[in-house]
Amino acid sequence: MNFKNSLEGVFDAFNRLQVLIVGDVMIDSYLWGKATRISPEAPVPIVNVVKREKRLGGAANVALNVQAMGATPLLCSVVGDDPDGGDFLRLLEQHHLSLEGVVQSPERVTTIKHRIIAGAQQLLRVDSEVEYNLTDFENRKLEERFHKLLDRADVVIFEDYDKGVLSGSNIQHFIQLAKERQVPTVVDPKKKNFLSFIGCTLFKPNLKELKEGLKVEFSDENLPAFEAAVEELQDRLQAEQVLVTLSERGVFVADQEEKIYLDAHLRSISDVSGAGDTVVSIAALCVALRTNMAFMAGLSNLGGGLVCEQVGVVPINKQSLLKEAQQNRLFEKHEHRIA
């Protein structure tokens, strides 16, 4: 894809992309209140409710991040035919996101995570969910939606939260379909299907997921062991690129020829929730534009840090990211390899 030889040109090119996001969706529910006394019934705080809110989570938060970057998200998932599923569809409509790729099933429970917060302290989280794989009927319906949306997609994001929408069989089917259409695939994995994404374009675990997925253990400071694990992962998945988020230590990205460490930027961290969703969204847009690996990792690293300054799961602010990228001269560092 052609775009102007500038950072602003890259950000403008994001607006013309369509991104297919397939995986587990959920509702992030928040109850904010004040806790000033302890219950006489049990040694727990009594929270007086001040505000309630429901937000899109999981793969749907990735869709919000893609939308916030100016691209068009095409969300593909399965939710329950239940009240929470109805709330989820209404939230999609409120955010002007298409419902065409979402399957409702009476045999499934919509995932919802209830968080109870007093002041800035999260006191409790209550989850309602199932983690078993889709039924044959549900999987057929999901595949039908995926087939339909893939023809419009510039890149596919697999967003796996181990809730059962993605499985070893449908993952390989989806990757093969994308390859046939020369559509790149980007993966945000979890433990259960970690090694199922053979042949993907970009694989993006965090350090904990890398260790769990490969069943290896080493100290975070042991860089030779870490890099050996990444090489093993590349060999087993035949992935073109691997991007590992390292929390406060930044990110690491590698392909078959190059390895790059990028430090995290100093920030006032409020909440790390949803940072991985932001990172994979930005990375996928860069993969769709075929920017170079270092620029992709650098911009994703900036975006992930920015959302950590906000409380709760929130999408990236495109103008804030553009401003930070300009201040860090991100484009100039890699312009000889961007286009």
Commentary on this structure:
- With 339 residues, the protein is α/β, with parallel strands linked by helices.
- Helix 2 (59-68) crosses helix 8, helix 4 runs parallel beside helix 5 (168-180) and helix 9 crosses helix 10 (318-327).
- The chain is 37% helix and 25% strand.
- Helix 5 links the parallel strand 8 and strand 9 (185-188).
- The protein contains eleven helices and 13 strands.
- The strands form two sheets. A nine-stranded mixed beta sheet has the order 5-4-1-8-9-10-11-12-13, sandwiched between helices.
From the structure above, extract its key features.
four-stranded mixed sheet; 37% helix; alpha/beta; 339 residues; single chain; UDP-N-acetylmuramoyl-L-alanine:D-glutamate ligase
User: Please, what is the average pLDDT?
Assistant: 91
What's the main sheet like?
A: 9 strands, mixed
The chain-level structural class is: alpha/beta
Outline type: globular
Beta-strand share of residues: 25-35%
DSSP helical segment count: 11
Low-confidence spans: pLDDT under 50, at least 5 residues?
267-272
Strand order of the largest sheet: 5-4-1-8-9-10-11-12-13
CATH fold-type name: UDP-N-acetylmuramoyl-L-alanine:D-glutamate ligase
- Helicity range of the residues? 25-40%
Separation, N- and C-terminal Cα atoms: 9 Å
CATH homologous superfamily assignment: Ribokinase
CATH level-two architecture? 3-Layer(aba) Sandwich
Q: Radius of gyration, rounded? A: 20 Å
Number of strands: 13
